[in-house]
Amino acid sequence: MTQTSTAPAPPGSSAPAPRRGERTRRLPTWAPWAAFLGVAAVVGALWPVLDLNAALFVLYTVVLGTLAVYLLTRAVEGSRRATDRLVTCLVVSAFGLAMVPLVSLVWEVVSRGAARLDGEFFTSSLVGIVGEGGGAYHAIMGTLIITALTTLLSVPIGLMTAIFLVEYARGRLKRAITFLVDVMTGIPSIVAGLFAYALFAIFLGPGIRLGVMGAVALSVLMIPVVVRSAEEVLKLVPNELREASYALGVPKWRTIVKVVIPTSIAGLGTGVTLAIARVVGETAPLLITLGITNATNLDAFDGRMATLPVYAYYQLTQPGVPPQFATDRAWTAALVLIILVMGLNVVARLISRFFAPKTGR
Amino acid sequence: MAKRIDVSDLNIYYGNFLAVENVNVSIEPRSITALIGPSGCGKSTFLRSINRMHEVVPGGRVEGKIVMDGQDLYGADVDPVDVRRQIGMVFQRPNPFPTMSIYENVAAGIRLNNKKMRKSDLDDLVERSLRGANLWNEVKDRLNRPGAGLSGGQQQRLCIARAIAVEPDVLLMDEPASALDPISTLAIEDLMADLKERFTIVIVTHNMQQAARVSEQTGFFNLSGVGQPGRLIEFNPTEKIFSNPDQKATEDYISGRFG
Ligand SMILES: Nc1ncnc2c1ncn2[C@@H]1O[C@H](COP(=O)(O)OP(=O)(O)O)[C@@H](O)[C@H]1O
Ligand SMILES: [Mg+2]
């Protein structure tokens, strides 16, 4: 039995007495893995008996393996370490569970979209295509143009709002704007689309479809994201730097432009890039404001434009006969969209890496 | 040019809170004036009101007069930005600009204000300022390295170089050595002795020996209780303050019998 009283160790004793529930014996590091392997082997052997499938096999292995590791550790190393192992197993399992939808989604899109990830997909539009072939050149260009336009609209407005909030606004006005930005963050994307549609319909009549309308709708979604991320980043700039600049006789606006923004440029760039990634896959507002077209239209101020999400939507819902070719194109469009978003995330990381202030001793 | 500063009937507020009350003092040119006193008695607040940094804090305002060589610093037509160009400041914690190199940090006062200057003139100015701050020999080979990569004491001297590069008339220092080790502190004190040939220096310090070592005049701030305004209790030549002060409170504080 281990001692249950917590008498202090006698003075002079070098090693501290083992705490309650902790023994000095240790399992080798490979033991937990071996336990899991063993459990997997047993469950695998029972596969025909229990009539398992892959998901059930993993489930049984994880649950029973965790149990086995816990009991084994408890028997050898004591309850403290056993609890530690148990929680480790739970955390890792939870992580695995969270990865399941992500991995299966990527797997599904890649395996189905890879078929049409060819040169033609990136170079031709859908003009004159019935059935096989065709591509999404017009939709890719459309997405790039609309996203660029959205960024052009949202970043200045969003950044300036954030600068106003952090550097100038005080009291009630500040609270009011922050509240409105919060409300804007929660606007459903379809509402943003309807807003842009209604706005342009006032001037250009109902039934209007324009590239800029889509950009305006997406800006409604993107501006609050930019404001929020920029605000957080600007708040991180130490006040001491602003004061150092003021003390040199630099006016406030120039301090913001030349000290505050350069200091936070990495975070601002990252925030903007992630905000772009956030809106690049929006479908609903573009469905209303841009519609779809089979031809290439690069003029955002003249008529319908195709974009990747809407393209995927129409290829999937109105495939024609036989549906196979359009469905393939839809998956490839989805894959291109994912690649685009992942590329933007990589860009965001690179920005924060390269622009971060260097200390370099 | 070093200039003289006359403060009369100065009250300093944070919103409605009166932080410092009724300061009357004359600060001599080409000398070091030390301000001592317990924490929270308004030394920093007073110092920051001299170059109008106080009003950067929301709600910060002052009543009374500060006159520098005949010019009322709080006059209606005076731009606080101009005042700060004439009265430089060094802060308690070294705060070099992290995005800038050592060179750019020293040149910041020129560059940030978009003053045009020939490259060779700017090089000269940077070298002169770094020499003035006793830092040139340590950094002359790595002027293009980030300023944030220097040690704490070097960073503080970099900040001093940055402050003197704009050639102010007065240099305010708020506990410039309190975050530094003894050797760096000594370096800064030596530096101050050099700088007082050219500038009027006002320094806040918690270190009594430091005040005694470097300053000609010493002001003792005190406050009678929490929430009460701080006051300038005594202002006298440093020698007198440390040997035979007029006020009992000053003597108590200096001899450690405070509170
Ligand atoms: N930004 C601020 N807002 C409100 N009150 C402040 C601010 N800074 C300082 N104070 C108050 O002003 C008084 C003087 O502070 P300070 O000048 O920093 O004292 P010291 O530098 O002598 O330690 C203190 O009571 C402090 O609480
Ligand atoms: Mg202070």
From TrEMBL, chain A:
Alphabetical list of Pfam families matching this protein: BPD_transp_1
Domain (ABC transmembrane type-1): residue spans on this chain: 140-348
Record-annotated membrane-spanning stretches: 30-48, 54-73, 85-107, 136-165, 177-202, 208-227, 259-280, 330-351
Function: Part of the binding-protein-dependent transport system for phosphate; probably responsible for the translocation of the substrate across the membrane.
Family, per entry: Belongs to the binding-protein-dependent transport system permease family. CysTW subfamily.
Subcellular localization: Cell membrane
Keywords carried by this UniProt record: Cell membrane, Membrane, Phosphate transport, Transmembrane, Transmembrane helix, Transport
MF terms in GO: phosphate transmembrane transporter activity
UniProt name for this protein: Phosphate transport system permease protein PstA
GO cellular component: a single term: plasma membrane
Transmembrane keyword on record: yes
Residue stretches in coiled coil: none
Automatic annotation (TrEMBL), chain B:
Record carries keyword Acetylation: no
Coiled-coil segments on the chain, per record: none
Record's keyword annotation contains Translocase: yes
Domain annotation ABC transporter: ranges: 5-248
SUPFAM superfamilies (UniProt xref): P-loop containing nucleoside triphosphate hydrolases
Alphabetical list of PROSITE patterns matching this protein: ABC_TRANSPORTER_1 (PS00211), ABC_TRANSPORTER_2 (PS50893)
UniProt xrefs under CDD domains: ABC_PstB_phosphate_transporter
Pfam families documented for this protein: ABC_tran (PF00005)
Any GO molecular function: ATP binding
Keywords: ATP-binding, Nucleotide-binding, Translocase, Transport
One GO BP: phosphate ion transmembrane transport
InterPro entries reported in the protein's UniProt record: AAA+_ATPase, ABC_transporter-like_ATP-bd, ABC_transporter-like_CS, P-loop_NTPase, PstB-like
A single Gene Ontology CC term: membrane
This protein's name: Phosphate ABC transporter ATP-binding protein, PhoT family (TC 3.A.1.7.1)
